[in-house]
C-alpha cells in the first residue's frame, strides 16, 4: 500500500506537468496572481521527490532547485495558505536560502497549495516580494480562487490527454481490426479456392476411381480368389469413406463461406427438407423423426437445413444397438430469439468428451469408424454465422440433446406451435 507521499507523487506524475512548458492560460493566471497581490514576482511551483520546478514565473527567471531549499515545500502538503509578511523575522523561514541571501532576499511571501480533487497537493501558487507587506483577506481569498482555477486547468489537460490516448488506442484497434478483416477476407478467398479444388480435383477423380473399381468387380469379380476379392472390397470401402470425407469437408467450407441470407422459415419446413435428403438413411434404420413446437425462425433456410441434416444424421448414425432411433426436434421462443433442441435416444456422448465434440475431426469412438468428425464442426460454423450458440448435453433417457439458440425474434406460428408432426 502506498504511503501518502508516494500517493501524492503518483498523482503529480499522473498530471504530466513536470519538465513541460506551461500553457498560456496557466501563465496568465500567475500574472493575475501577481497583480492581485500587488507584487512584482510570482511563480507556479511543482514539487516532486527532490526538486522544486518553477513551471512558469512572473518578474524573474524561473529555475529548478532542490526541494530542501524550497520555501513552499515546508508546509504545502497541509493544504493551507501560507501568509508571511516578513520572512526574515519568521522562525521557520528566516534561515531559508531564498530569504538569507544565498538564493534570494524574500521578505513578503504567500503561497496557496494546488490541491487536486483527490486531496493531493501538487505544488503551490506563490507570490513574493523583497519588501515586507501583508495581504488583505480579500486578496488571500482571490489567490485561493486562482489556485482552484489552476487545478481545474491541470485536470482539463489530464482529461484531454487521457481522451487523446483513448482515441489513439481506438485508432490502433480499428487498424488491427481492418487488418484482421483483410486477413479474414484472404482466408475466405483461400477457402473458396480450396472448395473449388475439392470439387474439381478430388471429387471427380474419386468418382472415376470408384467407377473403375465397380467395373473390375462386375467384369472380373467371379475370377478373383477370396483374398483378391477382399482387397477389392476394401479398396471400394476406402474410396467411399474418402468420398464422404471430401463431401463433409466441402460442406464445412461452404457453411463458413456461403452468404448468410436470413428469412422467415419454419422449423417443420427446415426439418422436412433435411429429412428428404436423409430418407434412405432414416428408412434403413427404421428411425422416427418428429417435430414438436413448430416455430418460425429468422435464419438462412439452406444453412438451417444443413444444420438439421447434420444433427439428424448423427442421431441416426450413432443409434443405440438395442432400440430403433428416435429423434425429436423441438422449438420454442426465448428472449431475443428461439431455442431449438434435437434430442435422440442413441448411445450418448460421455461427459468427458462433450467439451471437444465441436472441434474439427473429433470422433468420440474412432474404433467404430463411423463419421469423420466434421459434422458437428459444420454445425458450429453454421450457428456462428447466425451469431447464435450451440451446446451438447445428456438426454433424459441416456441419449444426446443438442441445444441451438438463434437470435432474431420472428412472430410465432401459434396455430401450429404444439402440433406434433411425425416424419418417417
TrEMBL record:
Tell where it localizes.
Cell membrane
Gene3D superfamilies xref list: 1.10.287.130, 3.30.450.40, Histidine kinase-like ATPase, C-terminal domain (3.30.565.10)
Q: Where is the Histidine kinase domain?
A: 197-410
Query: Do the record's keywords include Transferase?
Result: yes
EC number annotated for this UniProt entry: 2.7.13.3
User: What InterPro entries does this protein map onto?
Assistant: BphY/WalK/GraS-like (IPR050351), GAF (IPR003018), GAF-like_dom_sf (IPR029016), HATPase_C_sf (IPR036890), HATPase_dom (IPR003594), His_kinase_dom (IPR005467), HisK_dim/P_dom (IPR003661), HisK_dim/P_sf (IPR036097)
- What catalytic reaction does the record list? ATP + protein L-histidine = ADP + protein N-phospho-L-histidine
Single GO MF annotation: phosphorelay sensor kinase activity
Keywords assigned: Kinase, Phosphoprotein, Transferase, Two-component regulatory system
At the top level, the lineage of the source is Bacteria
Quote the cellular component terms of the Gene Ontology held in the record.
plasma membrane
Q: What PROSITE patterns has UniProt attached to this entry?
A: HIS_KIN
A GO BP term here is:
osmosensory signaling via phosphorelay pathway
Name of the protein: Sensor-like histidine kinase SenX3
| UniProt source species | Actinoplanes missouriensis (strain ATCC 14538 / DSM 43046 / CBS 188.64 / JCM 3121 / NBRC 102363 / NCIMB 12654 / NRRL B-3342 / UNCC 431)
Amino acid at each position: 500500500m502506498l504511503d501518502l507521499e508516494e500517493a501524492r507523487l503518483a498523482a503529480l506524475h499522473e498530471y504530466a506537468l513536470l519538465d513541460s512548458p506551461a500553457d498560456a492560460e496557466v501563465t496568465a493566471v500567475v500574472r493575475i496572481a501577481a497583480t492581485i497581490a500587488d507584487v512584482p514576482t510570482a511563480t507556479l511551483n511543482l514539487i516532486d521527490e527532490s526538486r522544486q520546478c518553477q513551471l512558469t514565473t512572473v518578474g524573474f527567471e524561473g529555475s529548478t532547485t532542490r526541494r530542501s531549499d524550497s520555501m513552499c515545500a515546508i508546509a504545502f502538503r497541509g493544504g493551507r495558505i501560507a501568509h508571511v509578511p516578513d520572512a526574515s523575522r519568521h522562525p521557520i523561514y528566516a534561515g531559508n536560502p531564498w530569504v538569507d541571501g544565498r538564493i534570494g532576499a524574500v521578505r513578503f511571501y504567500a503561497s496557496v497549495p494546488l490541491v487536486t480533487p483527490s486531496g493531493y497537493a501538487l505544488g503551490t501558487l506563490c507570490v513574493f516580494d523583497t519588501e515586507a507587506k501583508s495581504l488583505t483577506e480579500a486578496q488571500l481569498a482571490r489567490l485561493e480562487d486562482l489556485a482552484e482555477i489552476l487545478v481545474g486547468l491541470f485536470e482539463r489537460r489530464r482529461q484531454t490527454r487521457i481522451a487523446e490516448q483513448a482515441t489513439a488506442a481506438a485508432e490502433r484497434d480499428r487498424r488491427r481490426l481492418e487488418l484482421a478483416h483483410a486477413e479474414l477476407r484472404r482466408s475466405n478467398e483461400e477457402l473458396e479456392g480450396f472448395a473449388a479444388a475439392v470439387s474439381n480435383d478430388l471429387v471427380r477423380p474419386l468418382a472415376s476411381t470408384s467407377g473403375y473399381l465397380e467395373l473390375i468387380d462386375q467384369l472380373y469379380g467371379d475370377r478373383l480368389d477370396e483374398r483378391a476379392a477382399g482387397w477389392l472390397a476394401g479398396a471400394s470401402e476406402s474410396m467411399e469413406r474418402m468420398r464422404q470425407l471430401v463431401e463433409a469437408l466441402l460442406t464445412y467450407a461452404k457453411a463458413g463461406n456461403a452468404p448468410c441470407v436470413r428469412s422467415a422459415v419454419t422449423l417443420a419446413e427446415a426439418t422436412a427438407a433435411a429429412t428428404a435428403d436423409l430418407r434412405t438413411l432414416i428408412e434403413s434404420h427404421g428411425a422416427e423423426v418428429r417435430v414438436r413446437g413448430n416455430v418460425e425462425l429468422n435464419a438462412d433456410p439452406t444453412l438451417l437445413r444443413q444444420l438439421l441434416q447434420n444433427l439428424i444424421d448423427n442421431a441416426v448414425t450413432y443409434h443405440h444397438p438395442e432400440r430403433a432411433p428416435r429423434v425429436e426436434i423441438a422449438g420454442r421462443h426465448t428472449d431475443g430469439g428461439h431455442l431449438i433442441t434435437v434430442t435422440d435416444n442413441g448411445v450418448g456422448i460421455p461427459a468427458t468428451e462433450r467439451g471437444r465434440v465441436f472441434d474439427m475431426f473429433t470422433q468420440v469412438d474412432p474404433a467404430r469408424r463411423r463419421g469423420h468428425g466434421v459434422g458437428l464442426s459444420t454445425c458450429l460454423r453454421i450457428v456462428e454465422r447466425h451469431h447464435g450458440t450451440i451446446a451438447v448435453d445428456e438426454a433424459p433417457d441416456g441419449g444426446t440433446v443438442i441445444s441451438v439458440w438463434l437470435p432474431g425474434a420472428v412472430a410465432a406460428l401459434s396455430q401450429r406451435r404444439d402440433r406434433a408432426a411425425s416424419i418417417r
